[in-house]
Amino acid sequence: MPQSNVLRRDEEPLAAPAQSFEIRALPGPLGAEIIGLDLGRELSPEDFARVRKAHLDHHLLVFRDQRITPQQHIDFSRRFGRLMIHVLHQFHLPGHPEILVVSNIVEDGKPIGLGDAGKYWHSDISYKPLPSLGSLLHAQELPAEGGDTLFANMHLAYDTLPPALRSAIEGRTAVHSYLAKYGQLQKQGNWRPNLSARQLAQVQEVSHPVVRTHPENGKRALFVSEGFTTRIEGLPEDESRQILEALFAHSVRPEHIYRHRWQPHDLVFWDNRSLIHLAAGTPDHLRRKLYRTTIEGDKPF
Ligand code: SIN
Predict the structure, then answer these.
(1) Looking at domain 22-296, which CATH architecture does it have?
(2) Taking CB atoms and a 6 Å cutoff, what residues make up the pocket around ligand 1?
(3) 171 alpha-carbon distance from chain centroid
(4) How far is residue 121's CA from residue 280's CA, in Å, rounded to a whole number?
(5) What element of type H or E holds 140?
(6) Per-residue confidence band for 190, with pLDDT thresholds at 50, 70 and 90
(7) For residue 79, how far is the Cα from the chain centroid?
(8) Closest C-alpha residue for ligand 1 atom 1
């Protein structure tokens, strides 16, 4: 009998079939590669659970060879939570405000994306009361050289803190500000527009614990970065600066870092509660374009 694709009223829709894919831990302090999974297809509940667990275990997943559309990128990201809309609406992908275009490409004299995104170590959107759970960055156009992204494991950074530094930050909170480096970035290049009153209202500074507990795996992590953290509250300015400088330097010791060398169609999904990251830079004459979604997380504690 020929099979019909039409569902009878009493039939359940067929669950997405499982895909056969491999999870390979990367050598070093964080990360795993996912080989053979197509994020353009709906994931079965089992496949989704494997991906989620791998993300928690390794803090960063590299999904190789993802030939997906912006909408598929958004749909996959949404399975982990609400998506954040970046304050720089100038660099949203047209028709898809959930996607921030990260690019050094200038067309008709206008940048198509944020060319200096990630120039300082940071955790995405830590300047909001609900910072990001994680970000998904999808390669669209890659330079022949340069353009790497570095990630530092902030659980390891916390675990290996010298005891004096650890006790200096015990129970402390710090201020995070989107504007901390904004003026400096404006002077260094032509990527940053002046912010409107409406944009400024969206980026009021906030205070977060210096050490946070990951809400899903219970591990402690340092939660400060040179990009957005301006001062430790309740300490004299010079002491706060000295401690922050020591924390920044310790966080990015070579043994805490994974360097991602992009391959065509890579999609990298990292945990902003566990890692900070840095764009290592692209030679000016080479083009680089990536699309980023950012998932909202919980209030740090
Ligand atoms: C970012 O900080 O989200 C951008 C990182 C990169 O361009 O490598």
Answers:
(1) 4-Layer Sandwich (3.60)
(2) 102, 117-118, 124, 149, 277, 279, 290, 292
(3) 26
(4) 10
(5) strand 132-141
(6) confident
(7) 16
(8) 118
